[in-house]
């Protein structure tokens, strides 16, 4: 089981990293979504794996429970990354609507009125 | 006034039952809370459901439900057998137009749902004016027969119930 | 006996998931993919319910309930995207 | 634990598994999308229905308490499955089937995926 | 418990939604509320600063004992950072209001207050995961401020800013996962206590966590090689926002100072000198990046942005020593560079908005050219580290502190040569911007036919309220210079406290609410849930 | 503090205090301005002179104020002989320059600014010579660079001024920074930055291994400031400054700062072979080179500038000799050079001012037109040439005397020979100054008709000329001053014997050679000049320009090349660096063996694993087809949620699946406007590189996770399990952690959502009011392949489904504290319920039926959560302290109320409001893009029609704005 979880995290991370290295905003968004899955599972796994021991206390019996803290952390992380993704999507949309394409790279800084020769004027 | 407070009595009852189902424990407190929610939620959502559909003939409703359930079981077995044992080349799929006498949107919806859930048919789309349903039959030798069966077995009782 | 039956059902729905995966991967149409995803959702609900039976707990019920709900909503959204582009026009 | 209960539950579970499997199998076996649409909407519905019945039976007969949860899920699936199928069918039709390849509607208006509803001609713009 | 500790977080957190959701159609009202709130924040910050003289004060949120709940820790360092933030916020806010930046888009004031909440919360927290949460708050608020008022360039730069920081946040979570996996705790004091006691076999995980956190914080602090985002972001952001961002890089620096000296310091066996060994060269190269950027800049805003990068390098060089004298220098330089950057960005706003371009070519002089030139001169010598302003003192302190034989040549060469390149770059920019062009010499003159010596008539003169924030920033530099003695005295107390791990740990872990479960806690830890987890056998847990 | 030290501090501060005056006084007129500029200078000079007797007696006056004790930097001043000499020169000449500038500057020049800069410079200079702390000295040192930058660039309209100023700043600034390094090393060696301590520790310094680096660094500072070869080139270009500035900075004061520093550090640094070979050689070269170049300069000020370079070389060389006699000669020549060179600059300024040219080739015959100026110029130039009986002669004799006794690298000839050569050229250019400017016939083609200036303008040079003559004729008058300073330089008492006539010494012969040779050179000036012009020679300025241009160009290339806006590169570096660093950190220590047993892998998990891996791979493979990628992402979310259920995290499963759905909705909504496909833009090599980085990162993360999952750890969560019910009132420990133990995190998290809502709204407004609006208007985004927008079936189903879904939301909310669920999931469930409604009947229709202020909802959520937390203050408890209790009203069974639920309500509202505001914003954009809005819930309601004729209920559509 541990291997399954670890390799899944690895695969999601690799795919996410590959996608965030693409040139279009949408691919980057997909990549970040995958990375977000990966890190959520990773963080969750830091509490170690347990099967059928959800941390819902039973008043009747003395059961063992999985570690609740990483679960709470992951919940917080999921919510935050949801907000972030929403903003990212909107910013990407905005950037696309304000220009011709949804490239993620900035074009050359040089614009009209720039005199490259000025540098050597010193 | 009553319509404002309880816009959809059936919905309210259903929601109360849903609540009891959710909490999975029938107690007085849960019943009260469920009923309260069953009143409040339809009030909140009433603007999205402006008119109240007419529903009559509870016996017909029960009979209809039983028929449909039976048909679902039969349909499932038939389709399962077809999937498992029929060669792909032997499938004769057909489009069938089912003209509708129903006009109530609720009735049309239930009919379309029923068609989808029952023997070898899927309702694909309505006509733009809502007077016909396009049905896809997985395998049929007699499209007209299928259409008539639908109209007789499902549309007629629905017409009784809703209109 | 129940355990054996459960094992059998697990294998069935597991295989079902793999079939869905196959359809999602090769398509060919996006409608096929949405259909496969929807079927996958149903299989997962079944698995969740069976898991609850196996462990004898109802604690996973909300998950299946929610999966059913969001499965529907997302299938409709995917279809609406194909049909109209804007899903909440 | 009563023996008949166990048998009953097991039977429903096995049945559910079988129907579920067949439904998904249809997904890869059948040739065109419209045909494939039949598998999940039916076979799988019965599959999951059996599973839910098994679960209810299990909790009632073996655990000793009534569970309505499964009914809720059933309700949900029965309400949603036709709608989903309807949408998927439309998504397929609009992309792959020409209007003339479908039977006529029997009224003045065409199928809603191709035709505007009555009075809607003025909408464009 | 001193409830005022949480006040600087809660005040903006309550004010922001009110401004954002109630006053969103009423700019004057929002301005008044925002200014009043920031004023109150400043007062609170001063109060906290004055009360932070002794041992660290701890605020136990939810009345839960540490390390189980979240704590806020007010010590000299966090009090200093909070005060710095509040002062900067006031200056920037006045500028934004006076220049009308706040009205050029929606929700400036709400986002501004949320930004303050995030920054201050990050300074005050004593919990690494909570640090993450507040990083996210300050980041998401900064996304909004960064793209405030929109525009193509800003939007695209904003997109990059969001993306790189989301990648950074992801890495932060990975690091936190490793930390929790290795130590089982999130409280900084508890980490400081547990990490040195971990068995040797766990060192590798701790080391990875330490280095991942270094990258995360380094990203915020614009350290090479994760600084690349900064120039485009800062030079595309609205100027007052860029000025406010002067504190954002410091959050990264603060986090390294706080977390790494508490948990991964050189005296911790697991990490040893590893952090220094990586931080130092990274900081050196950062200085070089800043210097080359300043010297090679063709636009004013990137030039200033690169000077910020360079200043972060100098700051981090001092931090990398993890030693009190150097930390004193680092803290002094931190305060200085915050105001220097703010002054430059605010001034740049006044100038660029009148020149209508930040391209460094000769253009017609603007109105109030002399005043702007003088202010630029002052701010630039501050940033470049020329005497007599605090930048020079700060750099001297850093140089003086960096005496380790392996580091001295590098640190000295980088800082001194970097300063020279910065000076030359600023001199070039300043003389191009402010000295009147003429056709005499073959230098390019704008060919729009206007008399280059005459300012365009329609340019609005900057009023007192518009100039005051810039002047206040420079005045702050002067104060930091003049009171260098007392200030660095405070810094040296602060850095002593930073390295007093035992003091921090005992303040956090030994105080606090009576642990209702003090002994139960022991028991619970003994019956560790994940240790004796039985394999998945059907448990007949029941719904209740 | 004694009166003396107080007065010393006042002296040091007066120019700075005075610098504030001119700006104000200029409104009172130019004379008043000049007078009030002169006042602080004069006052300081008087106060200084009051100390003269004591200093001459060998007393050292000290003053110290604490500044930055941690660093060893204090405002420490001391006044010894050397300081006295220089301070006197600075203030004295400062007064004269103030006077001269009053008449020199034209009415258009901003005089207030000029005097301010001048006083700033004066203060900085004074600070250098009075500092008793080398860090303080460094501060003043750099201040002189800065203030001279302003003075040289004073005439802002002159590009020469701009370039000259920048060059001066670059060169002297660079030297200054080097000097900082040197000084810090000195401080390290001695253990104090106090100058007195350092001067007393000469032995220790010279013996230290860091002596040579310190020496070189400090000399770099001195050489650049004093324009020594090869840094001499900036000085002539600084001549673009107004002449008073040249006279002050570039003859009398600033350029002497380097010489001063060498003299100052003499006891600490001099006397070693390194000192001799570096300092003396550089000085010698500079002296000769400067003199040679001066001869061929036609610009009067350039001639004088190179002459100054040469004389500074002379001084440097003398100090480099390291002997006491040489030091005395140097001190004496400092005084002499000051007198004649300042006067000469002013003379040049007068000529320029009157004749409107400084070009020697256009001058000549001025003796008749401006006799007073001619007398002043001639006398001082003769002194510069080293011709008796003027003071320059005596100091030059002394220089030659020292040169004769100096052996350089075992060669006794080379120094005297070169020194004489320098003297020859010195005579030549001095004579040229006299004969080609004042001599010869009166011309009729001067740009302006020259005549003697008003008294105010020639008074200052005249006074200096008097000194030139006086010291030349009666050199013993200068003896006390020279001794005073030389004693301070050498560190022990000196006895200078200054005489005009020393008898027939070798130096005299060399002097005669110089005069004769100089006269011959002048006679041959024309052919020599032609040869000079024809000869190829390195142009220092051009080299410097090219060097700096290359450096700036390089900087630009490096900087812009590495910050080229390529996000993917930045991210690649980020990921690669993180991976490598992580690996190095990991491999730095050995990991212990696993301590946990592995859990089994049942078949369903295997299936899930395959599903996840295949789906992940497909996202990568098919990411260019954006819609398909989104469908596949749905699979991943489903599997992960399932995994969370399996691994005992039901709350996570609920959250994951609902968040994922909403996220996909959002992406679909955005994709509507975005391109539907991603083009292939990176080549195979790029993709390979990215693939390698990605795989490395993935492998690293996987390995890390695998390793820690195999070990046990003792965590703090035992406390949470133990106290969740008793202290937090809930059995769902995860929820209790969220709303209670770590409620502060949750508070932060809903604020993140609230901010997200704000940003999205603000962004939408910005877009609809920016250039994007036009694009939205003009682009057809519709891909409506289907004509039914709001199908009847969907609408009807939703009427039942939505209330049920809301019910589920309420249920999940209410039970969250004890069972899986809670405010966040509930918020999302209700959002999804509303989404259903929106998809069924459209956003606008739904929105119009029921106006919900999503803005306010977020605000309320955040405020409710915050106030719930703050409510604890009422009980004197910390923020977010929760309270809960159980209530029982028969016949209803017992139930629990907890403040945590109120907090959770805040969470619920913020989530719901946030999601809805996002949808609202996107929907507004869509409507702006031309989307029409329906007024009926469904496309067509067949129950409403009358046989298909006439408009149905849904036919009216309207368009937003
Ligand atoms: Na929860
Ligand atoms: Na509590």
| Assembly state | heterohexamer
Based on helices, strands and strand pairing, what is the structural class of chain A?
mainly alpha
For this structure, the CATH topology of chain A is Helix Hairpins
Strand content of chain A: under 5%
- Topology, number of strands of chain E: 2
Shape of chain E: globular
Q: Tally the helices of chain E.
A: 21
Write the layout of secondary structure elements.
The complex is a heterohexamer of chains A (122), B (163), C (89), D (125), E (544) and F (961).
Chain A: H1 2-20, H2 25-45, H3 68-98
Helix pairs in contact in A: 1-2, 2-3
Chain D: H1 3-29, H2 33-36, H3 38-63, H4 69-96
Chain E: H1 7-22, H2 27-51, E1 57-60, E2 71-74, H3 76-99, H4 108-124, H5 128-146, H6 152-183, H7 188-194, H8 203-220, H9 229-236, H10 239-244, H11 246-263, H12 274-296, H13 300-319, H14 324-355, H15 369-384, H16 390-401, H17 408-434, H18 464-482, H19 484-498, H20 501-510, H21 518-526
Antiparallel strand pairs in E: 1-2
The structure holds sodium ion (2 copies).
The site of one sodium ion has 7 residues of chain F, from helix 32.
Overview of the structural elements:
The complex is a heterohexamer of chains A (about 120), B (about 160), C (about 90), D (about 120), E (about 550) and F (about 950). Chain A is built from 3 helices and no strands. By secondary structure, chain A is mostly helical. The longest helix of chain A is centred in the C-terminal third of the chain and has 31 residues, at about 70-100. Chain A starts with a helix and ends in a 24-residue tail after the last helix. Chain B has 2 domains: about 1-50, no CATH class; about 60-160, Alpha-Beta Plaits (2-Layer Sandwich), CATH 3.30.70. Chain B starts with a helix and ends with a helix. Chain D has about 120 residues and is mainly alpha-helical. Chain D has one domain. Chain D contains 4 helices and no strands. Chain D has helices at about 5-30, 35, 40-65, 70-95. In chain D, helix 1 (about 5-30) packs antiparallel against helix 3 (about 40-65). The longest helix of chain D has 28 residues, at about 70-95. Chain E contains 21 helices and 2 strands. The longest helix of chain E is centred in the first third of the chain and has 32 residues, at about 150-185. The radius of gyration of chain E is 24 Å and the shape is globular. Chain E starts with 6 loop residues before the first helix and ends in an 18-residue tail after the last helix. Chains in contact: A-C, A-E, A-F, B-D, B-F, C-D, C-E, C-F, D-F, E-F. The interface of B and F includes residues 44, 50 and 104 of B. One sodium ion (NA) binds near residues 735 and 816 of chain F. One sodium ion binds near residues 727, 728, 740, 881 and 882 of chain F.
